[in-house]
Amino acid sequence: MARANAAPHSQVGRIAAYEQAMLAALAMPTSTRAEIAARNAAIAAARSQELKDAANKPLSPAVVAQVDSLLGLPPTNPAIGVVGRGDHWGHQRGDHVDHRGDHRSGPWGG
């Protein structure tokens, strides 16, 4: 009940948005390859948008599996939308990144 009444930008509201996006994705048909691809794209979007915003740590398949389990979502491949999403600073492969003057020791500074 708390998720249903949560402010949209609160931590609970963000988890509720992820849950709703996942329920919508999981309700999509899976009869054809195109439908499966569309469903997987919806799952990936839910994780890379709503869950990423709600997470207080980098997403990994283990984190996704734990969150999905706590929410009571049906099991899915926890790597969809998570694996290969760039480095710990959020850069994607192929992005030009100039680290000159960037003396952080990790993703949260140092």
Provide a brief overview of the structure.
The chain is an all-alpha fold and 110 residues long. Helix content is 48%, strand content 0%. Helix 2 (11-26) runs antiparallel to helix 3 (33-54).
Give an overview in words:
The protein is mainly α and 110 residues long. It contains 4 helices and no strands.
N-to-C SSE string, H for helix and E for strand: HHHH
Radius of gyration: 16 Å
Identify low-pLDDT runs: 85-110
Strands, total number: 0
Shape: globular
Helix/strand/pairing class, anyone? mainly alpha
Mean pLDDT: 77
SSE order and pairing:
Blueprint: H1 2-5, H2 11-26, H3 33-54, H4 61-71
Characteristic key phrases:
mainly alpha
